[in-house]
Amino acid sequence: MGGGLRELTGYLAALGGWVAALAAAVLPQWRQSSYAGDAIITAVGLHEGLWMSCASQSTGQVQCRLHDSLLSLDVHIQTSRALMIISLLLGFFGIVVSVVGMKCTKVGEEDPVTKSRIAVAGGVLFVLSG
């Protein structure tokens, strides 16, 4: 496998990981619980995420609401929100820097050493993002 193909494969894997991290940050299934009342008709599934809480009833109805205040959340939720945002930002900058440093792009073709250092910096940003 040539260097360019290996570089492109690594970039696509890192891009897929960033998209998966974005999906994990947005989805409200971080903590799940359920409540069944006296009758099975009143069963409720509760989902809590970093940004909202959702309740799904056994009839199929789903109600979601955003968290009211940042300060009213538990410390671990606040910390997770901050770390996910930092991770997504580092991954975004890794995407941009890696594209500039890849062999298949025309940006900075004059010096291959500088171009490879830019690609390594993009990889470091991806590792820090993870």
UniProtKB/TrEMBL annotation:
GO cellular component, one term: bicellular tight junction
Subcellular localization(s) per the UniProt record: Cell junction, Tight junction; Cell membrane
UniProt-listed InterPro entries: Claudin, Claudin_CS, PMP22/EMP/MP20/Claudin
Predominant place of localization: other
One Pfam family from the record: PMP22_Claudin
GO molecular function annotation: structural molecule activity
Bilayer topology annotation: Multi-pass membrane protein
Record keywords: Cell junction, Cell membrane, Membrane, Tight junction, Transmembrane, Transmembrane helix
Gene3D superfamilies for this protein: 1.20.140.150
Keyword Transmembrane tagged: yes
Transmembrane domains' residue ranges: 12-30, 82-102
PROSITE patterns found in the cross-reference section: CLAUDIN
Function description: Claudins function as major constituents of the tight junction complexes that regulate the permeability of epithelia.
Family membership noted in the UniProt record: Belongs to the claudin family.
Entry protein name: Claudin
Species of the source: Neodrepanis coruscans (wattled asity)
Organism placement in taxonomy: Eukaryota, Metazoa, Chordata, Craniata, Vertebrata
Gene: Cldn19_1
